[in-house]
Please model this.
Amino acid sequence: MLPEERRRRILALLDESEVLRPTEMAAELEVSAETIRRDLVLLEKDGVIRRVYGGAARARNLSRSAEPTRVERESLQQKAKDEIARICATLVGDTDTIFLDVGTTVLTWARQLPASFHGRVVTNSIGAATALAGRKEIDLHIIGGRIRHDELTSSGADAEEQVGRFFADKAFLGSGGVHPVAGLTDYHLDEIAVRNRMIDNATRVYVLADSTKLGHIALRKVCGWDRVTALVTGGAVEEDVVRQLRDTGLTVLRPEAAADAGGDADA
Model:
């Protein structure tokens, strides 16, 4: 196999998996792990992959100015989003009042809200409200406002005012970027304003972000980490970024800590 063909095969393997070890790629391509490592160095220089703890992953292709479409984001990082949802299930009480913000990761969490939950949900995500509409045991409130048709969300002054009428035990927020210095960032000003009202009126605030958001800075500031209880993340997380986030004092919850995340976060 020519080197160019081998590197195309490596990229194809990484398109199918969030992260792979060099030994796994070597076995698949029937070459040595050292050959794969040399290929990964060259691919990283080209900007098409990134080496992470334990292996390699496809490089992020996120713009600071604009985010991928909802349809594109729904097809990405589903395993990581499922991991995040499982952690969130350890954080919520059966009778809590919770805010559900917008975004595909929050939508995954809404779809996996435990069957035992019979509290109150307040959301400006039409997708999340639709996912929960058939659960009669939940006191469901959908926030009205100006509809963003491509995202199926509501925002604007009306939405802010309505969110301000509720106080929640926990808020589960989406994210455009999660950065140690820049804090929580996102793209759309009206949605950020609603999110900040949720932050103001929640006892605990959880930011949900798969590994592609970590280290990224989106267009607009949402808040600093002093206003966030914990970051909940999953996927091929870069250890250096996690360390930098924790150095700010932020609690970072990951799949390996899911079993006792609820106790740690609520302490």
Summary: DSSP finds eleven helices and 14 strands in the chain.
